[in-house]
Amino acid sequence: MGAYFSEIFLGLKSLFIGLGITFKEFFKPVVTVAYPYQTIKMSERYRGHIELIEDEEGNPKCVVCGMCERGCPSGCISLASESVEYEVEVKGEMKTKKKKVLTKYDLNFTTCSLCGQCVESCNFGAIKFSKEYNLASSRKEDFHFDLLNRLKERNS
Amino acid sequence: MSLTILNALVAVVAAIAFAALNAAYLVWAERRGAGRIQRRPGPNVNGPLGLLQPPADGIKLMTKQLMIPGGADKALFMVAPVLAMAPAITSFVTVPFSDTIVAHSMNIGVLMIFAFASLGGMAILLAGWGSRNKYGVMASVRAVSQNISYEVPMLITVITIVMMSGTMNLKELVGAQAGGIWNWNIVPSLSSPLMPVSFLIFFICSLAETNRAPFDLGEAESELVAGFHTEYGSMGFGLFFMGEYANIVIGASLITILFLGGWDCPLGLFPGVWWFLLKIYLLIFSFIWIRWTFPRTTIYGLLNLSWKILIPISLFNLLLTAGLLKVF
Q1: What does residue A98 show for φ and ψ, rounded to 5 degrees?
Q2: Which tens digits make up the pLDDT trace of B192-234?
Q3: Does pTM surpass 0.80?
Q4: Burial category of B138 from C-beta neighbours within 10 Å (exposed 0-12, middle 13-18, buried 19 and up)
Q5: What ipTM does the predicted assembly reach?
Q6: Closest residue to B41, CB basis, from A12, A28, A30
Q7: Chain A residues with beta carbon closer than 8 angstroms to that of B50
Q8: What are the domain boundaries of chain B?
Q9: Are A125 and A53 in contact (CB under 8 A)?
């Protein structure tokens, strides 16, 4: 008989403790982020798709060595370049030199697994992870990124 | 004669309007309350604080097609939602909101409300049976066994109150408690020292009678899809929904009238309809609060609670009160 009443009493007490907890939660501020209207800052280590890093003049730092293209396990990076002649002053006289200039940096994001091998293998610090995540689309063409173009758009 | 017909019409329209408005905005309050307890805003897009959400929901429900599943019993299927809504609205006829605001004061008001409340179980049974859905049938069997077992302690508690007041008229029941909080039935008196326990029993029973969580076994969505209204869409579902919330208002009104002194002010000053409304909305808030705090019980736990705990205690209280009334 005693066990019967103590069970009722303890059960009732636990119910009131539960009610107390939810009552306290009722007056705490809401934690919802109203997403399209509000956004939170992405964390430092967030991995979006890769993007090119620019030098001081706004050109890509990339020297088209092709290490990222070769290191990519999914084969989703394709580069193209052209040789450009330029003049430098060496010991008082002008000399013409050649260098490679990036003309195309395509990222096929549909197959990219965000492993980061490209960023890892880049010796010139020319690519990094972006913080972009609003990438929803119903067409797969929207995920073939022209990173050079994106860099230009970012600068303009 | 024409005046009495007009009076009746006004009363009916007012009762329907009150029930419908409450049903619509209690859904909003429920969702906002659930949101606050779970620390999210709840519906907040349509209108200020989401206050235009109920009309939007209503329009959506009313413009949808009413589907009748193949093989269903058409007559029962169509009657059930009406049977869920109509008794709830009818019960408002005898609920006294204040000394003067009552559609029809009856000498058997308590009895009438309980008679109509038991029709609600019938509606659930017909809905589950008529829709020819196994989940519906299981849910309605559960809901009926729940309603039957919780009506027993509820009525025993009401008998205790009626014995003390000597009347079944809701208005006179409130009149007997007039004059401040110490006269209310919830406060233990010499003739019935267990009144707070009775209040708790009645409160639990009205939660179960209105199929509210944690006793919402009739629509246990994790196991029975949507329970007895699985096959209902459109306004059929809307009527069940409105009936449920109208029943909640009736339940809160009954608790207020039987235990909390109706329209009486706690300090014995300025009695009026606002006290009644304040009390019922506080009770409804606690219904919402309880719903979003506790998980659903099992059907065994539910029936055990009624037959092993609530009925013995309420019976003991009835006998104790009867004896003490004889002594004092």
Answers
A1: -115, 145
A2: 777 888 888 899 888 888 888 788 777 777 777 777 888 887 8
A3: no
A4: buried
A5: 0.74
A6: A30
A7: none
A8: 67-327
A9: yes
